[in-house]
Amino acid sequence: MTAQNPSTISRGTNTVNPRRARTGAIAATGIVSMLALGCLVATPATAAPVEAEPATGVLLAPFYTELDLTGDDQVTTDDLDLLAANLGATSASAAWASVATADVDADGTITVADLAALSQRVVYDDGPFELVEASTIDMQAAMNAGVTTSVALTKAYLERITAYDRETMTGGSRPLNSIITTNSQALAIAAAADATRASSGMTSMLLGVPIAVKDNYDTIDMPTTAGCGCWDNNQTTTDAFMVQGLREAGAVILAKASLDEFALGFTSQFSSYQPAGSGLLVASPYDTSKTAGGSSGGTGAAIAANLAGIGFGSDTGGSIRVPSSYNQLVGIRPTVGLSSRDGIVPLALSQDTGGPIARSVTDAAVALDAVTGVDAADPITAEQTGLVPDSYTEYLDPEALAGTRIGYLTNMVPTATQNAATYTMFQQAVATLTAQGATVVPITTTALNATLNESSGSTNEFKHDLAVYTDTHLAAGVESRTLAQIIASGRMVPNRESTYTGRDRITEAQYQAWAGPTGTHTAAIADGSVQATALMDANDIDALVYPSGVPYGTFNTNMRLSPNTGMPAISVPMGVAAGNAGVNLEFLGRNYEEGTIIGLGYAFEQTTKARTSPALYPALVAGP
Amino acid sequence: MHTPAQRRPRLFAALAASGLALGLTLLAAGPAAAAPTAADVTLEVTPAVEIGETVDVSTVLVGTTDVFSYAVTYAFDPALLAYEADSASTGPAGGFDSVSTGAGTVTVLHTRLGTSPALTGDLPVSLSFDTIGSGVAAISVSVTLVDSAGAVTVISDTAPESVAIAALPVVTPPVVSDPSPSTSPAAVAPSNAPRNPDGSLALTGFDGTLLLTFALVGTAAIAAGVIVVRRRTAVKR
Fold first, then answer.
1. Distance of residue A519 Cα from the nearest chain B Cα, in angstroms
2. From CA A122, how far away is CA B112, in angstroms rounded?
3. Closest to A41 (Cβ–Cβ): which among B30, B111, B235?
4. Using an 8 Å Cβ cutoff, are B101 and B86 in contact?
5. CA nearest A74: which of B113, B151, B12, B93?
6. Is A107's CB within 8 Å of B1's CB?
7. Is residue A399 within 8 Å of A561, Cβ to Cβ?
8. Which uninterrupted H or E stretch holds B67?
9. What is the pLDDT of residues B67-114, one digit of tens each?
10. B61 has which bridge partners?
11. Which one, of A189, A221, A188, lies nearest residue A206 by Cα?
């Protein structure tokens, strides 16, 4: 990908908390965390031990770091040794300064209770491990204890994909169709992750975690079809920048998730590996007669049905947040510029951004850590310099809502008449936010109407931006390289021809007038950022909230606020309507303040715990 | 701009409640809803040894429930007993173990890690003492249990046990009959003759004053509590 016009977009006032900056490519390596557990690991009755020397790093602050006694931002046996040697020490003891941090009960004496509390700050669990709804912490704790391995996790997810993805379940009406390709190298990659753990400890919170990425992310070990049969053989020679980050963090790229062809719509219909002129629809695991949303619908369905640990999608006008809401998941649409789009098949680069879709805010934060970074191939990423924390997990504070001010635009919330379920859920959410110590501020204004009414860039930008991808990434053997050739191939989902034809008619002049440096959409996004930031500043609010949608649908133009400002949003389960239809609450923050909205979303999630697991896709019964 | 607040340490209530349960004195603190329990604490001690022999001590925390961490502390007479290094048993696999000694005490500690399940059932603990003096040595035990939520139970009224440590028997020098009158009064005494006329330290090839020095230094050190032995066992096998 070459320099894109969006890099010229100016932003509103940025008041990001000062954090240490990551530099260069290293920033994309998943900086989170290393906790060394080799020396902590004993031999569970049925598992091999994991042996490794301690590593250093930041891990899931503050919970897993705040009691550190030895200065390595983690709790290991060194910390336990130190505290055990000082059992009985009091505030009058000479060694008190070295152990006072671990006086958890604040009674001025180091007791067994303090040591028990310290020992709980280790990522370790030798109890039974359950794959369904497992978080990254669950997986890491079980792997650190030797209860499971990355190979076992990978194998288990592959088995679930085989058993569930293309099957119509009893009680369901159609298959999920959430996965296009599984990685034939996945088990080998997982074995390498296990070897890393054995030799170096838990080098990252993603080490050995199986991840599904939307099939518009380039991967060197699986073709990238963008959901189109016309690109079935697009085996790229490089990974997308974000995929590189995931691999460097030790993740296992398990599979490519289905999507609405070329990420255009919310229904998630794709034609990859299908006969010409036919397509498959992605189903919601909660009600397979309904769509999983889109365009990252395959990621949403797969993660909700526990076919992978964490997923990634891309969002131009709602494609991360819509499937997150439909599937009771957490989705982060980062600031445009936080995650490089290089190697992701574009739709409209003025708005495109890649981000995680996960079962929890914690998983999403962990995943986001691995994919940030400045990438010369996507110049807008230079904006993030100095604005990215060591780890977004630092913000995972259940009390993060206390003392905050949360605003909402009254015209972004449905009335009881418009949608009773969503109205009720939002009122409950307001009560929850208030109960957690936030001041919720209703705002009636027309200041953002233009931003909310600005149309999507997908019409005017798709042809131009697709050509950039084709020139820089599309495999040489792919014959359908232009929209005209794709239309002519007939290898696309039904009834899409007119859409592609319309996009193909866009001239370069039209594109420049829209998305060029002085284009109207470029200006609209810049103005949207300024207006939204000014609104937040004027009302002294930390975030704007609104429903991501309604049950199996969107509401007004709520999905446009984040893409038409470039500002980050996190969508968090808010409640479940009839038919197990999820509805999410979305938090919009200032540019590059993902940390703030992650914290707010986490506190909300911890209080509401609204996500449910789809009953149609339970744990597999072990064979004989 | 809001900055996420630092997480504050949990505040546990101070030890406040006490009572009798199952014949044991239980001091419970922390969340009132539950606390770790043990139906009984047993203590067995080798009843009688000679000085220099080992005293074996075994304890069972019987019928425990919801134990995330436990500490078993033995109190003993440091003039008669010394903890035998590395003799303490380890807790169940998958945790962290530590042993620490002070003046007349040794504490065996075990804790689970992370979010691992708490322990339930019988928890055996054993260790050994070296005998360094003669007499009757009492050994008492107190137990502290902590559950996953930080609730604490202290069990401290288990009846102490004693070990009788007998002094080494006096070695009586063999009776030597009068030798025949020497024709050489200047002859040197036999090399295996007792150096100590009273025979109380009937040593050969060793300077008894050294042993006395070591014993005295060791006793003094124990009495001063300067010997600290810690051992981590759970973790790397």
1. 33
2. 10
3. B235
4. no
5. B113
6. no
7. no
8. strand B54-67
9. 999 999 999 999 999 999 999 999 999 899 999 999 999 999 999 999
10. B41, B123
11. A189
Closest CA to A265 of A347, A166, A181, A356: A347
Residues from chain A that touch B70, judged by Cβ atoms under 8 A, are: 112
Distance CA A496, CA A343 (A): 24
A10 is a catalytic site residue = no
Contact residues on chain B for A595, CB-CB shorter than 8 A: 4
From the CA of B27, how many Å to the nearest CA of chain A? 13
Lowest average pLDDT, out of A48-62, A217-231, A280-294, A538-552, goes to A48-62
- Work out the pLDDT band at B34, boundaries 50, 70, 90: confident
Confidence of residue A28 (pLDDT cuts 50, 70, 90): very low
Distance CA B20, CA A138 (A): 39
Residue B6 CB-density burial (10 A; 0-12 exposed, 13-18 middle, 19+ buried): exposed
Whether the predicted pLDDT of A46 surpasses 70: no
A62's tokens = 């503050």
Range A173-198 average pLDDT:
98
Q: What is the C-alpha separation between A368 and B143, in angstroms, rounded? A: 46
B111: nearest CA in chain A?
A: A116
- At A376, which amino acid appears? A
* HEC secondary structure over A30-82: CCCCCECCHHHCCCCCCCCCCCCCCCCCCCCCCCCCCCCCCCCCCCCHHHHHH
Residues 57-76 of B with CB under 8 A from A: 68-71
Of A80, A116, A542, the CB nearest to B146: A116
Chain B 154-213, residues with CB within 8 Å of chain A CB atoms = none
Picking from A572, A574, A567, the residue whose alpha carbon sits closest to that of residue A600 is A572
Residue A51 near residue A195, CB atoms below 8 Å? no
Q: How many CB atoms lie within 10 A of CB B145?
A: 31
Beta carbons of A404 and B2 less than 8 Å apart: yes
The residues with which B96 forms a beta bridge, in sequence order, are: B111
Report chain A residues whose CB lies below 8 A from the CB of B31.
Answer: none
Cα separation, A407 vs A526, in Å, equals 21
Per-residue pLDDT of A388-434, as tens digits, reads 998 999 999 999 999 999 999 999 999 999 999 999 999 999 999 99
Choosing from A150, A178, A214, A324, the catalytic residue is A214
Q: Where are the alpha helices (DSSP H) in A161-240?
A: 186-200
Residue B175: what pLDDT? 65
Query: In angstroms, how far apart are the furthest CA atoms of chain B?
Result: 111
- Residue partners of A553: CB distance under 8 A and separation at least 6: none
Alpha-carbon gap, residue B228 to B218, rounded angstroms? 13
